[in-house]
Amino acid sequence: MHTTSPSSRQDDFWPDFLRGVKTSLPLLIAFIPFGLLLGSQAVQKGFSIVEVPLLTGLNFAGGSEFAAVGLWSIPPAILLLAGVTFLINSRHILMGAALAPHLRHLRRWQIFLLLFCMCDEVWALTLTDLHTKPGRRFSMGFYAGITVCLYLCWVSFTFIGGYSGNILGDLTRYGVDMAFPAVFIMLLKGMWKGARNALPWCVSLGVAVLVYHLLPGAWYVPAGTLAGILTSLLVVRSI
User: Fold this and answer.
1) 128: closest CA among 227, 239, 24?
2) What is the pTM of this model?
3) Helix (H) or strand (E) segment spanning residue 43
4) Structural contact between residues 58 and 117, judged by C-beta atoms closer than 8 angstroms
5) Do residues 30 and 176 make contact, with C-beta atoms less than 8 angstroms apart?
6) Which of 31, 82, 133, 160 reaches 20 to 30 Å from 176, CA-CA?
7) What backbone torsions phi and psi does residue 171 show, to the nearest 5 degrees?
8) HSE of 135 in the Cβ direction (CA atoms, 13 Å)?
9) How far apart are CA 132 and CA 74, in angstroms?
10) What burial letters (b/e) apply to 12-44, b meaning 16+ CB within 10 Å?
11) For residues 188 and 120, is the Cβ–Cβ distance under 8 A?
12) Which residues are CB-neighbours of 22 under 8 A, at least 6 positions away?
């Protein structure tokens, strides 16, 4: 049986790294205005320009960061912030589980580092790359190329947004808050496998929208996630 030697994998790292960088470049168009928006909102809520990159660099999950900034008060409601952040980031449990089979050959500390850097975009692009060719192994270089670009862009532009927050004002009047929905639509397109497999997406979306209008807080996140999982199980069993 043919196996890939460590030296050959090291030789592939930098070409794959550059491939990851090129793949991530279109997403930077969305990250820049959204990072500016988050940084601007954070300083208007009382964050210092040092606390903004700490928030985005240590968490690196845009949805929960916007929720935390939106709920921020002085003094902060720690339990509320922690609970909402946990609910929104609970999707990472399923994302990590989907990626786990491809990481079994890595050391534990490498897996923890990779999962710390995993956001929706990194996860989706990595899985799409793995499914592009049957039998393709997880590429550390490709993952690193995407992560470095997106992470540095996100932390840098949230800092810039915080630094110039009082000057920029309310950026939503320019429509920049539509950047992330556009990104997720693009990511879904890359993971498209036919109308039948899209049924869980539609059910998850419908349940999430319904719960969003009926219940306060971030309960629409786990509700939509569970609805999508149950629909996936029913679809798979019916095939």
Assistant:
1) 24
2) 0.81
3) helix 6-44
4) no
5) no
6) 82
7) -75, -15
8) 3
9) 48
10) beeebbebbbebbeebeebbbbbbbbbbbbbbb
11) no
12) 145
The closest alpha carbon to 66, from 40, 30, 92, 48, belongs to 40
* Single-letter code of the amino acid located at 222: P
Per-residue model confidence as pLDDT tens for the chain (239 residues): 445 555 555 668 999 999 999 999 988 888 888 899 899 989 989 999 999 999 999 989 888 898 889 888 888 889 888 888 888 888 888 899 989 999 999 999 999 999 999 999 999 999 989 988 777 899 999 999 999 999 999 999 999 999 987 676 666 777 766 766 777 777 777 667 777 778 888 999 999 999 999 998 778 878 888 898 899 888 766 65
Cβ partners under 8 Å of residue 53, min gap 6: 155, 156, 158, 159, 162
